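Researcher: Here's the sequence for the chain we discussed earlier.
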Amino acid sequence: MQRRKFIKNSLSGLPILLTSPTILTSACQQSDVIPSDKTVIVVGAGISGLAAAKKLHEKGFKVTILESQDKIGGRLRTNRTLGIAFDEGASWIHGIDGNPITTLAQQAGMTSAFTDDESIKSYDIGGILRAQNVYATVEDEFYTILNSLNKRGNSTQSFETVFNNLYPAKAKDRLWKFLLSTFVTFDTGDLDKLSSLLYNEGEEYTGIEKFATNGYDTIAQFLAKDLTILLNQRVSKVDYTNTKVKITHNGTVTEADYVLITVPLGVLKANTIQFLPALSSSKQTAIQKIGMGCVNKFLLTWNTVFWDDVQYITYTPEVKDKFNYFVNLKKVNPAANALMTFAYANYARQTETMTDAQVIDEIMMHLKDIYGNKIPNPTKMLRTKWQSNENSLGAYSYTAVGTEMQHFNDLAEEINNKIFFAGEHTEIDYFSTAHGAYLSGIREADKIIDLQ
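Model: Thanks. This is the structure I predict for it:
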């Protein structure tokens, strides 16, 4: 389903900010090499760090990436142990027109399938199938409210507080809870912490949505070609007191002329990296004030298919954010008898304390309510735990109560032309997206290049 769909509607009639595909394509091509003995350390081998490192390497810089995990990609992470490409993080290209991921996907050999938002069935408790016109009518009203709710918000109240005060009956309605969960919480963050003023901030690319079918990590592998990457290297200190920056990782100290920090916002919030001197108050405030949401994904496989032949199956339980949205992977991969479902916000965090068996039981309660008690249990399940993953400590950033849009720029601000910052949380127009992370890496590489 189209992330930021309501933003697209709210911006209708306004100019959409697009980046030139020609410029983005050339960002990964070698040109105007700058012979240089300058060294760059990139902390993190996610898409932002890889994009920056690739461009700097092609310009002649001596670049080393330090990655804390045992594989590259960061939140571009694909699990293929069940014979299906299960993207644990990014799954969609959100608007293909002018989007840098569109070009990267083609170059990397990433295959994708059209996301058909109309191929959907909606079920209520008791397995009652909603009439399509009923669902569509409520969805239209939902977007109408989203397009104007911020005009009635304020800087101290959350989206949830304002919505519940204005629409108490809708706040209790199961279909409305589903729409809020899937179209707002999934796209942003916890509704009880989401800003009632800034929930619809950000730009989007136009065009159709596409779903990766052979793994989003193909992009990471493409960007990483010919780069020097050291895995299992956890950075604990960045000392920029002197001319050269000293980076402590696994007890070893490495010096560089420039350092690019691309760790997720959750890691910055945890203060696991010590900066000497300490980061500015504006940067520390931004780290504190911008929210970090949590979305967890679950892939389940069966020997036989029992579900509808549509791309999306939705269910409206009483409990919000709980396994209410199923992607039918067989529609994009005919060999896969698999469904992918989600948990959001606090329920997503709760799943990380549950066993596999407990999670499967909860998911099957919903599927059995739709399709009957005789459907088989899944043969296998894969899952994510983004909140407790020490390398991410959450899924992606969002505009929480107290967030100011300037905070994203504050996070992107370089220090003394030596310490640079990239990642989706530093991209004011495209935060919380893979393309935003990519663009931030190119942005910071350009800053370093311009210093020469």
